[in-house]
Design a protein that fits this description.
By secondary structure, this protein is of the alpha+beta class. The protein has 25 helices and twelve strands. Helix 4 packs parallel to helix 6, helix 17 runs antiparallel to helix 18 and helix 22 packs antiparallel against helix 23. The protein is globular, with a radius of gyration of 31 Å.
Length: about 700
């Protein structure tokens, strides 16, 4: 391992590894073997991981001198398994500038009243629906010139913030659920989605003595036996737990300790029971079909279970640390020997939170500019590396940090960054990922009709709709965004992949097509990551970022061929043959999927027709019964008023009501008329299927 200081390029004295565990040494050697040289050796402050020197022996003296010279210009991402000291930046935010954490005693939880919880759900759904109607009306006023763009956006943001505050005030499971709904831009507006997506889990801290007791209970020993220093004041707090800083006794390493709140598992278990009841109720009665409440509940349950058990987060962090090492992105080391279900101990990363960086860049730009120059941080290079790592996690590693908002990104020296908080790490179904990657390749080749035909097939089971029309609408929209992506004057927000996906989801919403569960999960990750890129560099070209990633992807996929010592002719022939086979495989894969889709559509069409007919019949029958009951009550009131109730009785009144021919005609015609009004969408669906 090289001991060169990345800031001075001078060798440092060797240090002993007595404090490093065998696990950290194994990770370090694995990281060294996978690293490759970076951009240019002229930048002495650039992180270039070392490559092994197995093939170095037979070089000439001149090559030896050149190699040694380049080695002095390089340094590593890690040092003894931890963050390299040369990457630690100077502080941007002083400790006194932060507002102190509010400490509150844990509330006394009780079983929530069923009617109160249902009332909150109804209020939330009605708030969404009312805001959607008002947004449509304001858009209409904007189109006829009665409302300018600034006022329209201000009104939409005010309503979106009201929904966000509603969820934030209730905390806990409401925040988690709102973050899931934020990815459903087929149901809510883009402004509301952005507001809910920025709803981060923040909560007051709980008393330090409770945190200390939790740590000692989890570790089975006093805090002083494990940590030489322990800060009782929490660094941050959320609904599930809070964070303290400390220093390990035998390793002398500064760490952060995540401590779970006492009895929080019981609280979430009660709330999830209510959510399950509501999801089952809506699913059995066909309510909120477009929301897919059963899949929403499963995703929410998976999220809560993973975040409540810190052992899962520790394992996810360890896996992601290995993946990110290939991206030259840092992830803190997890100390597995001190991590349990209630406590998680990981390395403290002394960087600058990107959220603080963005906040101060708007408030004190000169101060941030000086900090960037001092630490060799270039926002354009940082945004490119962030975007590249995010794409590689999704489409190459299939193991991704699902919550890459600025609060989970630490800025380091030399335009490097670290990812923290591994409570939300995801992976995608392999077959879905293959289809989605093929869909992106079709978009790059401008085969829009084929791409969106595959895209709609990926949505799974859908209600009947005019497929050719939907494909045409999406193809026109994609062409519009592809052209805008190359215009430098347009802000990143208006031409990013998340903006395109948001518009596509709105098209699905117009046709009542619910997106698949895997697609929604992927969208959440994309929206969070691209929002971070947009805040970091609002003028960045999305086309350039995409092109850089795909160029790098092709190089990485072709590395094995390039390393082989073959003749140029053989290499070219092999590549052409591989390309032809891949093209044949892609088309075969596409047409097989189309055959399955056509078969599924035929079955779905027959089922939808039957459901629509039955719905109309049952609605008409139900209305006839309703009118009959109303007529019976009317006759009953008349009999009581004229004192005929005693002589006729209840049975006589019922017979008189339904034997009246005038009533019967009114029943039938009134029921059919109202049924046709209420079922106009079902009738339209039948016409589309014809």
């Amino acid at each position: 391992m090289s001991n060169a200081d990345p800031r001075t390029d001078e060798p440092q004295a060797p240090t002993t590894d007595s404090e490093s565990s065998p696990e950290s040494g194994a990770e370090e050697s694995a990281a060294q073997s996978s690293r490759a040289p970076e951009e240019s050796s002229t930048e002495s402050a650039t992180i270039v991981p070392l490559r092994g020197d197995d093939n170095f022996t037979g070089k000439r003296d001149k090559d030896v001198e050149e190699h040694i010279h380049k080695q002095k210009k390089k340094f590593q991402l890690r040092y003894q398994g931890l963050l390299h000291p040369g990457l630690v930046p100077t502080s941007l935010v002083q400790s006194g500038e932060r507002s102190p954490m509010k400490i509150l005693p844990p509330p006394t939880f009780r079983w929530p009243l069923m009617w109160l919880a249902i009332r909150n759900v109804i209020r939330f759904l009605s708030l969404l629906r009312r805001n959607k109607r008002r947004d449509r009306f304001d858009v209409f006023l904007n189109r006829i010139g009665r409302l300018d763009d600034g006022k329209l956006l201000a009104r939409q943001r005010a309503r979106a913030e009201a929904i966000r505050d509603f969820c934030a005030d209730r905390g806990g499971i409401w925040i988690k659920g709102a973050q899931l709904i934020a990815a459903r831009r087929d149901l809510i507006s883009e402004v509301t989605s952005d507001a809910l997506d920025n709803l981060h889990d923040r909560a007051p801290g709980f008393p330090p003595e409770l945190a200390r007791a939790q740590i000692e209970k989890a570790l089975g020993k006093p805090v002083e036996e494990v940590f030489v220093e322990f800060n009782p004041h929490p660094l941050a707090a959320a609904t599930i737990g809070q964070i303290h800083t400390a220093q390990l006794r035998y390793k002398k390493t500064k760490v952060v300790i995540k401590v779970r709140r006492p009895d929080i598992e019981k609280v979430f278990k009660r709330e999830m029971g209510l959510v399950k009841w509501l999801a089952d109720f809506c699913t059995k009665r066909g309510l909120l079909k477009q929301l897919r409440p059963d899949e929403l509940y499963q995703e929410l349950e998976h999220m809560i279970v993973d975040e409540l058990d810190y052992r899962i987060e520790a394992h996810s962090g360890k896996l992601l640390r290995k993946v990110l090492a290939d991206h030259r992105v840092y992830a803190p080391k997890i100390f597995m020997e001190y991590s349990t279900a209630d406590v998680l101990v990981m390395e403290y990363v002394p960087g600058v939170l990107m959220s603080d960086f963005l906040r101060l860049r708007n408030a004190e730009p000169e101060r941030v500019k000086d900090w960037c120059e001092e630490n060799n941080v270039k926002t354009k290079k940082l945004a490119g590396r962030f975007y590249d790592s995010f794409q590689r996690q999704l489409f190459e590693d299939n193991l991704f940090h699902a919550d890459m908002h600025p609060g989970n990104v630490m800025l380091l020296r030399n335009s490097r960054f670290a990812l923290i908080d591994f409570g939300s790490v995801g992976m995608t179904d392999k077959s879905f990922l293959e289809k989605y990657t093929y869909y992106l390749s079709l978009l790059i080749d401008h085969e829009y009709s084929k791409a969106f035909d595959l895209w709609l097939h990926m949505m799974g089971e859908t209600p009947p709709f005019d497929k050719p029309k939907v494909i045409r609408d999406m193809a026109r929209l994609q062409q519009f965004f592809d052209y805008r992506a190359s215009v430098k004057a347009i802000p990143y927000r208006e031409k990013s992949s998340s903006a395109t996906l948001g518009k596509m989801l709105q098209v699905l919403g117009r046709y009542k097509i619910p997106p698949a569960h895997e697609f929604t999960k992927l969208n959440r990750t994309i929206f969070a990551a691209e929002s971070t890129v947009e805040q970091l560099l609002p003028t960045q070209s999305v086309a350039m970022l995409m092109q850089d990633y795909w160029d790098g992807r092709q190089k990485r996929l072709g590395t094995d061929l390039l390393l082989q010592d073959q003749a140029d002719l053989n290499t070219t022939t092999l590549r052409r043959a591989t390309s032809i086979l891949e093209k044949l495989d892609d088309n075969l894969f596409y047409y097989l999927d189309r055959i399955r889709a056509i078969s599924k559509e035929a079955t779905s069409r027959e089922r939808s027709i039957g459901q629509a007919v039955l719905a109309i019949v049952f609605r008409a029958f139900g209305l006839i019964l309703l009118f009959g009951v109303l007529a019976f009550l009317h006759d009953l009131c008349v009999d009581v008023q004229h004192s005929e109730w005693a002589s006729r009785g209840l049975l006589g009144t019922v017979v008189r009501t339904f034997a009246n021919a005038e009533y019967f005609d009114y029943f039938v015609w009134g029921a059919l008329f109202v049924a046709l009004i209420f079922m106009r969408r079902k009738i339209k669906g039948l016409q589309d299927l014809a």
